[in-house]
Amino acid sequence: MIQPYDDTYFMKQALQEAQLAAEEGEVPVGAVVVCNNRILARAHNQTERLNDVTAHAEMLAITAATNVLGAKYLTGCTLYVTVEPCVMCAGAIGWAQLAAVVYGAPDAKRGFTRYAPQALHPKTVVRQGVMETECAEAMQRFFQERR
Ligand SMILES: [Zn+2]
């Protein structure tokens, strides 16, 4: 049976956002917030454009999703992000009480699993490695082109 809405489907949407970031000269990280198989919000990293180090894809997607829902918690929602969230974003994901976080590529330097593995809400499910190769390649391509 074909499952149209699976982790790969939504990660592809996050990757499209990462591509938009790359085109704007931003580090290519994209995120979508999904509730009942519906994309509530999509965002990409905008730290350069906004001159704001907190403007990570996850932060922007969480804020946009809560605006759509008119509620501050995202308890029934899943956040898809192309790269492992940093400590700041993991904190925000914890505050928002997301049901699940799915990420593509690990981030050995800034990822939360190394520095703040307890930052998420205890009930939040984490899945990693979804389209990992594509997500990592987007980052590698971006940094190679800038060298
Ligand atoms: Zn972050």
Short description:
The chain is built from five helices and five strands, in the order αββαβαβαβα.
Description of the molecule:
The chain is an alpha/beta fold and 147 residues long. The chain contains five helices and five strands; from the N terminus they run H-E-E-H-E-H-E-H-E-H. The chain has helices at residues 7-23, 57-69, 87-96, 112-115, 132-145; strands spanning 30-35, 38-44, 77-83, 100-105, 125-128. A five-stranded mixed beta sheet has the order 2-1-3-4-5. Helix 1 (7-23) runs parallel beside helix 5. The N and C termini lie far apart (45 Å). The mean pLDDT is 96. Zinc ion is lined by residues 56, 58, 85-86, 88-89. Zinc ion binds at residues 56, 58, 85-86, 88-89.
Characteristic key phrases:
single chain, 147 residues, alpha/beta, 5 helices, 5 strands, 20% strand, globular, binds zinc ion
Average predicted confidence as pLDDT:
96
Number of strand segments: 5
Give, in spatial order, the strands making up the sheet with the most strands.
2-1-3-4-5
The number of helices is 5
Beta strand % = 15-25%
Query: What small-molecule ligands were found?
Result: zinc ion
Report the sheet with the most strands, covering strand number, pairing sense and barrel closure: 5 strands, mixed
Element order, helices and strands?
A: HEEHEHEHEH
